[in-house]
Every structure is written in C-alpha cells, then in structure tokens.
Design a protein that fits this description.
Length: 205
Amino acid sequence: MRENNILRIGLTGGIASGKSTVADFFAALGVPIIDTDVIAREIVKPGEPALDEIRFAFGDDIINADGSLDRTQLRKIVFADDALRARLESILHPRIRDVALQQASLASEPYVIIVVPLLFESPMKDAMNRILVVDCDEETQLQRLTTRDQESEEQARRIIAAQASRVERLSIADDVITNENNLADTRSAVRSLHEYYLSLAAQIT
C-alpha cells in the first residue's frame, strides 16, 4: 500500500476531538498534511462537476445566490437523513480519495498525514498504512461544538450520533492520541509518534 516510498498515516477522530490541533503539531515537525476537508471544499467550487451532481441530488436550495454551495444548509439536510448523507458521500468520497492519494504520491518526506474525519465509514481507510485516532469523550465533544461552532446541544448530539461511535473509531486504530484538555500531553504524544513513524518509514522500501 506504499507508493513512491511514502508512508501514509490516516488521521481521524470524532467531530471536535481535536484533529486539527494534532495535525498542526505534526505540521510543526515538518510533516506534510493532506486535509480532506480542504479537498472537499475545493471539489465543490462553482464549475466543478461534484457541485453539479450535488445540486441535481439536493436541489437549488443548497446553492447560494453567488452559485456557491450552502454548506450549512446541506449539513442540516444530510445529518437529518442517513440515506441523503450516503448519497452525498457517494458523490464526494471517490473524488476526495483520488485527490488525496495523488497529493500523497507527490510528497518527498518519509511520511504524510492524511486527515479524514469519517475514515471509519470510508473505503479510504484501506489506502492507509496506519490509522491514528484522536480520541476524547463525548461530553468534551459537546462542549467544544456548542462553544466553538455555536451549535445547539440538540444539533451537536445529532451530529455526533450521525458519525461512527467512539468504540468503532478505536476499533480501527493502530495508534491513539487522547486529546482532552492538556495540550502539552497532546504535543508530547505527537512527538513520540513522529519518531515512531520516521522509524517505520525507514524500514519500508
């Protein structure tokens, strides 16, 4: 599963678990970060085929006046209906996977971090050499969602419930970083894994 001598580490975790914080710590160590959320935004810009498919599937109500995707409206729709969320994922996931793996193949560093929030649910996990889960309890997620994203508690619980459970995410983990409230511990865990991943990369040819 290794291409161009690049070790691929899939970074995942529940919403508001602290994936971005962990990714930033890896980036500070010089590790390339491929964020599938960034890719997802790029592939739904006006004029992109994915946006046309989404508009056909969900209607004009999810399109802003300037022709861009109304992500907030779409989010409300898909988190309230499993079938619609699966429809959206079928449009986005193959495209996101292709772009992410292409970017990974171009990296010159020993390994890359590919951030995939819904990795448990995605076939993209099969393209990873290792999976790193950022873990925290649900109450911490709720607190961060209601504070950071200004979500109501009801909507925050709906979003959490729509994702893979904590147990499911941990079931696919090769490595785990607990990210509650101590950033010093989180940074230390990232440094340790960085050394470990470098050693793994050196062993694989």
